[in-house]
Write a structure and sequence with these properties.
The chain is 51% helix and 8% strand. It is built from 21 helices and 9 strands. The strands form 3 sheets. The chain has a 4-stranded mixed beta sheet. α12 packs parallel to α20 (396-403). Residues 367-375 have low confidence and may be disordered.
Length: 425
Amino acid sequence: MPEKIIRDPVHDVIAFRTERPADALLFRLVNASEFQRLRRIRQLGLASLAYPCADHSRYSHSLGVMETARKMLAQLGRSTPIDEADELACLAASLLHDLGHGPFSHVFERVGGIEHEKLTRRIIQDPTSEVHQILAKYDHSLPARVVGLLQGEGTRPLFSDILASQLDADRLDYLLRDNLMTGSRYGDYDLGWLLHSLTVDENSGRLAVTWKGVSAVEAYLQSRYHMYRNVYFHKVVRAAEGMVKLALQRAKRLAVQDRLPWPSREHSVIKALLGQRLTTEEFTDLDDVSVIHCFKTWTRSADAPLAALCRGLLNRQLYKTIDLSHMAESDACAAFVRAQNAVAAAGGDPAYDLFFDEPIDTPYEAYQREPVTGQSEILVRDPSGKLTPFAALSPLPDALNKQLMFRRLHVASAWRDVAAGALKG
């Protein structure tokens, strides 16, 4: 029996039975150049500076999201009919959902103004892309159907929930994958039991969990909280991300002023930083490797701020962290201004030698349903069929959200004592 097997550390076996047309299509998508590019985009950016094995890619994550969606659909299909064409479109969308991601997780897109969701849709709709050609050859309407699902459109809300909700396949995979690859042991939860508790509400068509799944959802939310607190918001990770942002902002400023000798304005990195439209072929060339190559070259730049930032990133000479979480927001902002003034007075550059960091996110939000995002609160169905928002049944969401707050000052090591001294005044 023709079968392609990918061994995965989270899901073990991801199988494509290629005698089935749908599986053959998915495997062809995996081999498309736009999808293979995701091998060169690390899932967690520079988190490996804190967790040395966290070098896994968006390629492996995207495969995991597809496999998670496949398991979700298999469970839901036991209690509700699922059309094969709809299932295939959902699996293709889950596989391709990260095609438009820029280098270094979300940092690059913030500087260049890239919206990876829009880029993903553009690549799928671009007749010159391999992904589009593979989908259209199977069914000329499939590219539009996949894009529609990624936009939260579709005849059945359950597909939108699988792709974008508080219990979507994306979150379910990345928590386990990031937990495993960082070795943090904070983000583990019982995926098997959570999947077993999934159901579809007959009236709304929404994804829900049965009463028996409440504990599994609580464990999932706890894992998400701990991963944010201990991995995604780790001080080293945030310092590195801030330095990447500063380096890219500096390079962008120099490029605008025609003061960046290399690379040329036609280079994919510079075009992206300047917010210029890239062809699909150019975007396929934009990855972590191309940006790191720029960083290596810029270490020899005549521009001191750019060179120092790039050397720090490549040699793990990261900014030091001063915790301001004990301060009220107004006091922390005032302290940051004092630190800026002190660094400037001592001869530093307050625009590039320090930055303020207040990473606010929540493990759970009771989202109102929005057609564009598909994000929505978790619903629990009791034995009588009544739906209840999860936050009304468990104190955990409110408790976790209240705890997740940081205020930090990150400062170049040469000016750490100067900044700390200013905070005592």
